[in-house]
Design goal:
By secondary structure, this protein is an alpha+beta fold. The chain has 3 domains: 83 residues, Winged helix-like DNA-binding domain superfamily/Winged helix DNA-binding domain (Arc Repressor Mutant, subunit A, Orthogonal Bundle), CATH 1.10.10; 163 residues, no CATH class; 109 residues, no CATH class. The strands form 4 sheets. The protein has a 5-stranded mixed sheet with strand order 8-9-10-11-12, covered by helices on one side. A 3-stranded antiparallel sheet has the order 1-3-2. The chain has a two-stranded antiparallel sheet with strand order 4-5. Strand 2 and strand 3 form a beta hairpin. The longest helix has 25 residues. The protein is globular and about 65 Å long. The relative contact order is 0.13. Keywords: DNA-binding. It holds the Pfam family AlkZ-like. This is Winged helix DNA-binding domain-containing protein. GO terms for molecular function: DNA binding.
Amino acid sequence: MQNTGAMARDSAHREIALLRARAQGLFPADAAAPGPVVGALLALQAQDLAAATWAVGARSPGTTLAGVRAAIDAGEIVRSWPMRGTLHFVPGEDLGWMQRLTTARLLQQARLTHERQGLTEPVYEQARQVAVAALSGGRSLGRDAFQALLEQNGIDTAANRGYHLIWHLAQTGTLCWGPTAGNAQELVLLDEWVPHPRRLEHEEALGEFLLRYIRGHGPATLADFVWWSKLTVAEAKRGLQVARPQLAERRIGDASYWVAAELDGVAPDAAQRRRFASSAWLLPAFDEYFLGYRDREASAAPEHHERIVPGRNGVFQPIAVAGGRVVGTWRRRMLGTAAAGQRLGIDVVPFEAVSAAQAAGLRRAGERYARFRELRLGEFNLGDFNPGELRVGDTAAQ
């Protein structure tokens, strides 16, 4: 029998999970278009392009993969390196002010690695000139073609130098990823792809960064924001001072969290709690619902974190969520041939016991994912819960 403290903790976790799901556009799903979905969250981790498109689709009911790609091709959603040295989807108009807050520290952190590879300011400048000459006028190039062009101009791209050059040119505002091409994207000039960026003063930008994070992820703590943004604690505190009039402090359980001021005093009613308890989602690798916080216990039991991020190697698995809790991982398989009509197979590997109602909800979530891919769900397999088994999903599944 649970003790009173454990029951109170579980109740607080359910409350936090519900409110975060609501902030993230997962519950209730409000049919927002892809661009507004990304705008509401400010940034979604996107080094895995296929997974990131489903992160958007999961929050945009009725949207297909083609719809998300169309938003990318239109420049509504831009993929670049705004923070943490990691690719994210962001609204194009917000990328510039975010990078002005984060780039100096990221360049300093990368300096020794780049110097060891012979990447110096003259090399960066030569690469920048090659990029501008090749891409001006709305042109685009895939990664391999761009690296071949650098080689033709005497710039060595071997041993991962090509990646580091692209990263540097994007981090410093010359390049970003633009239109889709097959399963990838092509490089474009940022100032042409995003001709009308928002321009914020330093302190205004700090406040905007914090406010947008809380609105799209709250309830959250300042420590959550510092982890997510990788700003300094001092910068985060200054951002909080700027954004404070638009925020409210909310006590949940034995801790305090920040929420958007418009949610102050707004509590889920009994009907919402029942619907949330029966909700189920199949979310992609690196999804913000689990990844977007320093403290993740509201969405997953600590003993399961190793299965979601095996070896704590930074590779987050696709997650199966029931009633707001991560209950397993999942992967997809393609069935049949293109000629005969491909179908989708989904395998869920639970690490908690799953009820019949939750299993039915996860199958419906699989059907939603199949519709996003404009495929038919051919198989849905929910494995038996085995506490001694350590199996994880396929990070490329989405």
